[in-house]
# Entry
Amino acid sequence: MRVALFLTCVNDTLYPDTGRAVVKLLTRLGVEVDFPMAQTCCGQAHYNTGYRHETEPLARHFSDVFADYEAIVTPSGSCGAMVRELYPRMGERARAEGRGDSLAATLERVVPKTYELTEFLVDVLGVTDVGACYPHRVTYHPTCHGLRSLGLGDRPRRLLEAVKGLELVELPGAEECCGFGGTFALKNADVSAAMGTDKVRNAESTGAEVLCAADNSCLMHIGGTMTRLDSGMRPVHIAEILASTEEEPAA
Amino acid sequence: MSGTFVGMPAFPKAAHEAVGNQTLRGNLRHATHTIRAKRAKAVAEVSDWAALREAGKRIKDHTLRHLDRYLEQLEESVTAAGGTVHWAADAEEANRIVAQLVKETGESEVVKVKSMATQEIGLNEALEAEGIRAYETDLAELIVQLGKDRPSHILVPAIHRNRGEIRDIFEREMSEWGRPAPEGLTDTPAELAEAARLHLREKFLRAKVGISGANFMVAETGTLVVVESEGNGRMCLTLPETLISVVGIEKIVPTWRDLEVFLQTLPRSSTAERMNPYTSMWTGTTDGDGPQTFHLVLLDNGRTDTLADEVGRQALRCIRCSACLNVCPVYERAGGHAYGSVYPGPIGAILSPQLRGTASEIDASLPYASSLCGACYEVCPVAIDIPEVLVHLRERVVEGGQVVREGNKVVLQPAKGHAAERTAMRAARWAFTHPGALRTGQRLASRTRRLHPRTLPGPGRAWSDSRDLPAVPAEPFRDWWQRTNGGKGGAK
Amino acid sequence: MSSRERVLGRVRRALADVPKDDTPYEQVVPRDYLREHGERSVEETVNLLAENLADYRALVHRTTTDELPYLIMRLLAERGPQYVLVPPWLPPEWMSAADPTRVHDRAVSTPHELDKVDSVVTGCAVAIAETGTIVLDGSPDQGRRRITLVPDHHICVVRVPEQVVSSVPQALERLDPARPLTWISGPSATSDIELDRVEGVHGPRTLEVVLVSDQPSADVNS
# Structure
């Protein structure tokens, strides 16, 4: 199966370890992974800040880059939701504005075959035990777009529960937003920081060493709050946990 | 109350103060978390919740789509049942109509059932200016009125007050308005409720004019419905000789049968009860029972402008349950006052900028008062996609475009405050459609990473004041991919 | 232009983008939600009513037609009220054993007069098991809305099983919208202090519901 990794601009620039983990994990599971070099950004930040028209060229570009692959896999709940939930909406809006079907038709090529990583593992590859080993106490934060837009449900949890050595502990208030919210983190910094602090305090109360999530944007916010609060915890992307093995443990 | 919201600062500024107020944070956290768990339980009891939610959505959408027809039908039914229907295009007209109707009775005081519509139009202040005193009779409204405060929640306007604060307000203020608080009043909720009962009873018993809103109006029968808990609604709806109900035009449902949906979804969503203690339904007037004169004032006040927006109109499905407020992490921390409107929380963030337009600083900031986490949409009993409307309104703020204001089409200019952001977004769009440019930027960031400060100047401080920045890696992923041939070329 | 025309004109212009749709209303809304939740025998439905009434702090009693007058007598005597209000056509035998002074509601009774009354005894139009609700519709055995509002103690008699339905949809089917309706679920309450429910504000603070049947049955909580 030939699969394109849509890493996202944030991961590409700031979290290459997550990208390497996805490649390692999928390769181990027998998937041929390609990273189309022309990929950039899905346009989520533009769209959610109100720049829908600026987003359209980015969405078209995305479609041009990825349309020919069998599946597109992304280690980001929010970018996955952008493509799956909001690209169709952009197409509809363009149609409603009398600009025809062209945008909708272009985006339709990528929408149904874009998967968030845990979805791809569980639904497409049909695995929950990916042969990982990660001997740490971990708590899991379900990020909002993964939880509510994509409906990831218990997929991440099932994957984590199958990881050797991993002790999964319940995060109080797990389903509450961490406060990142893209440009919200800047525009409403006080509320965002208050939400982040509460998330970190809840995470600390579990006694876990690691807070795991399937979206590095949220982890950037949570992690930045953790170090600022001198919390002993670390944020880790789920891909890095699933890629970790006894032979090649994660850092 | 709307008057007191004029000139409110933008949301982030108001929220800044609220976030720092530990008492307020504690009160809101306690109240919203209590109700959240209860709502989830009340909803889980009903196995067909999804079907009820979908039916509620469809009923409302259909009604809005044929609103003119149903308004005319409602007018006919109410008139046939002995009521008089008035139409008000805006707040000022509604206030004038109500003041005139009260004056015609010769009375100078009225008792009020909690009503969002009359708060929205600032009816109490308008009546005051005409020499008419309006007594709020809902417990929370009473707390707000006595405390010379502003409402901060749709269902529980005094949610920002804890029991101790309420006790103090009662003890200090009740004597100014009528019967004083009982001696030695403590802060137990039952005693506070008893104090309100005693204080208001004399007002109910002598009232000649009652003013209410309504939760639903049935076009087919002309029936109005008020859903409440305390019995103050029943008092105001049945004891006075004259009843004046001010109701937004979107509160219509077509048929009697439609109530079977909302009377199941509303109580469970709002107070997390199987059924609220009291629901009153009346159709015009009844000989010998209740008010013998009934006036219905149908209120537009921005609703038709909202209806004209094909994405935003779904906000008119709202049945004012407040479930979205109770689950909202932003509301929980910023408090209701920061929203600068009688409609706080997620629904307020999409309703106020539509009813009032986005011209003011506060209204232009409301669409951004959300992390788009989607918890509001998940609990909404009429499935209003609040995040979708928020993003749509953000677009209206930054891009401008055609909207309808007071029935007229106008073209909005993009908001001035967003010029720098707009430039940045355009630049980013350019870079993202030119992968080479993006790569150059990434490499530059990686090469200079040792020079990056831990805190940022300018607008970036909003981030680095409370959070550390992530370390920039030695090379972006794409360079690694190319250098190692996708990890196959030897590098680890 | 009148405001009526102005508002209706705005509505029509606002909907200009909406394609015409003349689908009959019955077909627009999927009514695939349940008519009632769960399957219950008649007896189970009555039990559920009693349970849900009690859950919201109504005092529930069960009795037979023959015993009803004595139960009402006892309930009134426990409160020791001097004045008991009765609607114009309350079945006279219900009160045949009660001692207190009966006050008949008259059209001229003022709210202040009603405020001097301690208790009120009425029938009801329908009772809803799933929500623990009784509905009054102003019939002659229930009287004007105000008489069940101003006194602090309300005894409501429900004939079981004939007046009991399972659900809200079933109750609406039985009710006449032209009548003034009051739905009552427990005594007056409020959630206005810290969003937690407290009983007892403006309406009757004690609600006693008597489930009366021709068949003897176990008393629920008295």
